[in-house]
Amino acid sequence: MRDALNIDFSNISNNISGVNKPINLSTKLVKALRQISESLNESKRKSVVKLEVNGENFELPSEFGPILIELANKAANRSQIHIVGSRDTFTTQQAADYLGYSRPTLIKMLDEYKIPITLVGKHRKIEFTELIRLENQIKAERKKFLQDMAKEDYELGKLEGFDPVKNARR
Fold first, then answer.
1. Residue 82 forms part of a structural domain
2. 103-116, pLDDT tens digit by residue?
3. Per the structure, how many domains does the chain have?
4. Which of 9, 69, 8, 60 is nearest to 42 (CA)?
């Protein structure tokens, strides 16, 4: 018999409504999510996570544990949670909001980094995987720029005791 973690959601009410809208969690649900997080942290040796939702049983592989822990922690802390499939598409405004840029800046970046887009009429759509690739390219470029600046400052004697080679993160 496989070890399992049993979580009963049957007595929890919430007012989750709509897609792409903020979710209002009841205090009871937040407490339950905190319990889930604590239980999952304590049961890393379990091979199966069993959930009961409204009287229906679900069995999840233990690999879902870290995902549920993260979800429970975010929800319990009332952080925003976004669940996005890798093939989901974003409008340029949604992509700009996700990355924290203006829409015109994002459009310039899409062209500069040669990120594939799909045109729907005159509207650009960006796959989530491509958006993440753009985000990673920007981060890598920014990191290299900062390392180069630190190295230059070191060579000019502005950063005494700092070794850019030794302090560079990989």
1. no
2. 999 999 999 999 99
3. 2
4. 69
Would residue 83 count as lying in a domain?
no
Same domain, 27 and 71: yes
Q: Do 105 and 68 belong together in one domain?
A: no
89 phi and psi, to 5 degrees? -115, 150
Residue 27, φ and ψ in degrees, nearest 5: -60, -40
Element (H, E) at 60: strand 56-61
Rounded to 10°, the helix 103-112/92-99 angle is 90
Are residues 150 and 101 part of one domain? yes
pLDDT single digits (tens) 87-140: 789 999 999 998 999 999 999 999 999 999 999 999 999 999 999 999 999 999
Has this prediction a pTM greater than 0.85? no
Joined tokens for residue 101 = 């840029």
With residue 6 as reference, give the H or E element that holds it: strand 4-8
The torsion angles phi and psi of 158, rounded to 5 degrees, stand at: -80, -20
Residue 149 is assigned to a structural domain of this protein: yes
Domain that holds residue 44: 4-76
User: What per-residue confidence (pLDDT) applies to 161?
Assistant: 64
Does some domain include residue 22? Answer: yes
